[in-house]
Amino acid sequence: MTTHRVNGDRLNQTLQELARIGATDAGGVTRLALTDEDRAGRDLLRQWMEAAGLAVRIDDLGTMTGRRPGRNDALPPAQIGSHIDTVRQGGRYDGALGVLGGLEVIRSLNEAGIETDQPLELINWTNEEGVRFEPAMMASGVVAGRFTIADVYQKTDRNGHTFGDELTRIGYRGDAASRPGPAAAYVELHIEQGPVLESRDAPVGTVEGILGITWIDITVTGHADHAGPSPLSLRHDALLAAGRIVNAVREIAARDGDPVVGTVGRLDVEPNLINVIPGKVTLSADFRHPTERGLDRMVGELETACMRIAKDTATAIDLNRFWSILPTPFDPALLKAVDEATATFGLPAQRLWSGAGHDAKYIAEITPAAMIFVRSQGGLSHCEDEYSAPDDIAAGANVLLGAVLATSTGSGEPNPD
Ligand SMILES: [Zn+2]
After folding, report:
1. Do 99 and 37 fall within a single domain?
2. What is each CA distance from 44 to 17, 35, 346, in whole angstroms?
3. Is residue 395 in some structural domain?
4. Fewest Cβ atoms closer than 10 Å to its Cβ: which of 128, 172, 363, 372?
């Protein structure tokens, strides 16, 4: 079997060219969804897609799909996608890597004269970041049936502009018939945005899925009192209880090991004065786990811990689990294809979970999906210092190419015609 490779230099140059649109002085990018910068980025991407022979269609959410015909064009397509919108003062790679990595895959297939049985589609999803219009992953969410188009059109930015009006203004309001449909496979290449691959000295990783998240509000009620005359044994110290809850959250998460995490990120103390025993503390817990059962178990363990802490500290503790999102495991066969493609390039197959959301999360509900992560320097992202080395980027795109070819039977060799 021939091992096909992308042109890594061309991919890195293309990434830097797109990064000029919305470039910031500090080397980052601000290209918020449906702004003039987004339009300019889309126009350039469209030119590149058409030059690579793709038939480009725009749907009613502004999502761009470039299609490369297959030998049997009636087969469901294999899709490659991500986004080119960024956060404010974001980086050059988040999202852009997946779209332009896919473009490089198409360019490389063209050059090698390789046809695939099934058609290939390259997708740029509108408003993945959800910075200008909330929530995130908006277009992929509509395609997966999570949001309605009417809802999305009415969303406003901080200046009162609606999504629908801005989409029309930049000239990217297409029709519903042009939406990407369910496919044979969806593969998204993305920077890791975390430190795991760097800690393992690995350029590329296979993403097993996206962690589920649950958020809990915790209220501790004690009794505010003078810090001097109150003996320790007679206190109802809400902050003492809260401190033990912080430890409990950490211990509960640590019990399951990576990639499970638990965080207390918010804590409000009342009255928050140097000589007063805290009477009330509100704090938060954020748990992330690869399984729904695991999430439920962590919450149960926190409830048990809080009952014990309340007794020990003579306080009352109230828990409110107010928001959850289920984990998304990716398609096992596709993950195997990514592992195998990784091994083809002499790289160790690395499995890891994503703690952040991506378009692949919603698409996994309608299409077998997988993601490939590329090492992020320092684990940094959503900032101007976001960086992945050119060799790592090329490695990620090579794995993408290998995985996409593996999803198309009978492909991988040049057409004899
Ligand atoms: Zn992204």
Report:
1. yes
2. 9, 14, 34
3. yes
4. 172
Give residue 358 CA to ligand 1 midpoint distance, Å: 6
CATH number where 42 lies: 3.40.630.10
Verdict on whether the full-model pTM lies above 0.90: yes
- Ligand 1 centre and the CA of 95: distance in Å? 4
Indicate the SS3 state at residue 96.
helix
Name the residue with tokens 């038939």.
55
Q: How many whole angstroms separate alpha carbon 221 and alpha carbon 199? A: 41
How many whole angstroms from 304 Cα to the centroid of ligand 1?
Answer: 37
Nearest to 82 by CA among 43, 134, 139: 139
Quote the number of domains for the chain: 2
Span 200-234, pLDDT tens digits: 999 999 999 999 999 999 999 999 999 999 999 99
CA of 193 to the centre of ligand 1 (A): 9
Last residue of a domain, one of 291, 325, 359: 325
- How distant, in Å, are the alpha carbons of 119, 143, 362 from that of 365? 21, 10, 6
Residue-wise pLDDT tens digits, 1-49: 568 999 999 999 999 999 999 999 999 999 999 999 999 999 999 999 9
- Residues with Cβ within 5 Å of ion ligand 1? 94-95
Tell me, yes or no, whether 97 lies in a domain: yes
Query: Residues 106-165: pLDDT tens digits?
Result: 999 999 999 999 999 999 999 999 999 999 999 999 999 999 999 999 999 999 999 999
Indicate whether 83 and 191 sit together in one domain: yes
Find the 156 Cα to ligand 1 centroid distance in Å.
21
Residue 240 structural domain: 212-325
* Integer Cα distance of 150 and 87 in angstroms: 24
Q: What is the mean pLDDT of the chain?
A: 96
CA of 356 to the centre of ligand 1 (A): 9
Tokens of 296: 């439920």
Which residues are within 8 A (CB) of 259 and not within 5 positions of it... i.e. 6 or more apart? 196, 211, 288, 290, 352, 353, 355
Which single residue is written with the structure tokens 């509509």?
142
Ligand 1 midpoint to CA 34 (Å):
16
Kindly state the average pLDDT of the residues 234-259. 97
Residues 140 and 266 placed together within one structural domain of the fold: no
